[in-house]
Fold:
Amino acid sequence: MLTPQMLRYDDFDDRAETRYLPYLMYFHRANYRSDTINTDRLGFRMSVGNGTQASVDNLPKGPVRLLAGSSTPFGIGATSDATTMASRLWSRYAPSLPWLNFAGRSHNSMQELLLFLTHRHLLPEIDEIVVFSGLNDLALSRLPDAQRGAHGAFFNCGEYFEQMEELRARHRKQKRGFGRRPGGPAQGEGHVVPPLADRIAYAVDLTSQHLASLQLLAAPTGARITYVLQPLATWVRETGSAQERAVFGELDEVSNFWELYGDIATIATGRRYAAALEQACKAQDVRFLDLSPVVAQEVTDRDWLYVDRAHFTDHGTEIVSRLLADSLALS
Structure:
């Protein structure tokens, strides 16, 4: 097996052990311990640097920097806490201040905002917030309006709405009336996936709204906010290393990635999405970086970057961490 650490992530992400939290919907397992991944009592992953480790519940002294976003900055694919992006930034590429892993597995931009809102009071002075994200909002934009609502869909929301409909049915009083039927149409019944242009616009609009709110929440801290569009494997290069081709081939046998996400997985879509996000970030006075072309210029077809199309190997994390620090002039 080319990526044995992924067995530990499968255990960590066991749906039977999901922690459901008010407002946030779900977050990581708390106090999880293994050679691969460890979390504090709140569920935040530990980051490692300067001969120590830190998290939101285990704060270092003085100001900190936050690496926010979803599962890629969280470090799915890393062989240990020490090889995640936050740890490599703290240990080597931008070590002047500690970096906290402030990312949430499978989170969208609204959940990223809520994670900050619900834990801001625990944090010390914040020097920098780097939001390393973008894929999930675009991926979820294909879901029906009834599931997206006003704030965007979230992963596994179909199960949530099904359970809520069952709850409503238990409370619903049967009323007399001609032709009255309990319940309503199924979520997404007859749904047609919107055109790609509409989905990009929708994802960018959500991101812009949530970044504006993050700016307001973070303003008293004086922290600078940077939004980094994460480099999906197929936004970096059409064909990866031999190891990536082998791993992706195995994953495609048990998943429907191309059926669900084929239209957003092209380099052209990645650049188009990045251009729209850049304009939105400029309007919010947020620094923006499209990391895909930066990575593409740096690597060769011998570089094994990904354990799947969204998450990095340790080698990929090392390259991305260095390029991130260089591109943003972090020290």
